Amino acid sequence: MHQKLREHIEKIILLTDDEFSLVLSHFNSRSFKKKEFLIDKGDTNIDCYYIVSGLLKLIYEDENGNEHIVSFAMEDWWESDFIAFFTQTNATMSLQCIEDTDVFCISIENYQKLCAVLQKMEHFLLKKSNSGHIASQRRILSFLTSSAKDRYDLLLKQHPSLFQRVNKTMLASYLGVSRETLSRLSS
Amino acid sequence: MHQKLREHIEKIILLTDDEFSLVLSHFNSRSFKKKEFLIDKGDTNIDCYYIVSGLLKLIYEDENGNEHIVSFAMEDWWESDFIAFFTQTNATMSLQCIEDTDVFCISIENYQKLCAVLQKMEHFLLKKSNSGHIASQRRILSFLTSSAKDRYDLLLKQHPSLFQRVNKTMLASYLGVSRETLSRLSS
DNA sequence: TAACATTTGTGATGTTTGTCACACGTTAGA
DNA sequence: TCTAACGTGTGACAAACATCACAAATGTTA
């Protein structure tokens, strides 16, 4: 597991063994079973997660109890309720396992400490944050410019593996349409 | 103009006079008239802009020639086609003045240099990037969970000043509904 | 100020999507 | 292996929204 994290980071910055040990000391390694919650809405002291293996969904429950999938997160991705993580407030979203999942997690305190003690990591995290920002912009664009059918086709093209790992109800929730509409789109 | 940028940065990190001069040397100051383009789709070498005064729209034109407003940007905000800026590719979006606008702009080369020569600025930019990420997440949530009417009400609550400065056609484009639907929502 | 372009509201109509109901096959656990 | 929960497709209908057309109000420029 350590090796995967190291390779992931070293795609952007190079680390000595000592530096990587220092990095690692700021993380905890944890495992979760399918349907378990890494974050439950209302939780405080939200961590940020690097996903070694498995699949997660970040969900928002509206006032009618309907679940909306803000994003899926799979191997090699970083995920959190970033609003709660960065602003150090209660989680408004939940992060739940779709499959058994192994992660490294880091608290906001350790995130800040790590940036302070190892400048390279601040650089790494800036790159990651910028990538996250870009991914969000793309998703906004898809809502602005595309019909449900087009969003479906785009997702199928960009993340075909999701269609094997995630049921139709969740895909519909991610695309922002009802289960029934999605069913009619794909037939 | 310099003072505004300095105050903006010093909300997060403190700078000596020399440090601020160093920061400033990485930026250019520019002014644009209403309807002028800071970024035109297809442009290369996209800059990132800090807005001193004025109002901009970031737009995406779809294959049918329809304009979609990805975001508005006003005083004290940072804006760019971040996809093009960070990935150093051609702009797919345009950034256009709604009002006369003064900005500081920075190239990706200077952005990277500045991070390298002044660690504090890397910290500042990480904070800004995280804020941008959060703002995008909120916008995605509004598309997932809210009807056009609810998105309209939310915008009115969060940014009432926009309703004075921007016409209804643009508001509709930002909210992702037709001009006619918006008109019926607000009456 | 006259001529023209832009902005806005509103009716009529069609399309897209949501909601409710139900049937049927699959999966998971006792 | 039996049973209950879950996942999926589909019909009928309602609601939300887009599109087209047009008129009135407002803004802009020669």
From TrEMBL, chains A, B:
Task: Cite the Gene3D superfamilies for this sequence.
Answer: Jelly Rolls (2.60.120.10)
The record's annotation in Pfam families points to:
cNMP_binding
- Which intervals hold domain Cyclic nucleotide-binding? 15-114
What this protein is called in its record is CRP-like cAMP-binding protein
What species is given as this protein's source? Flavobacterium circumlabens
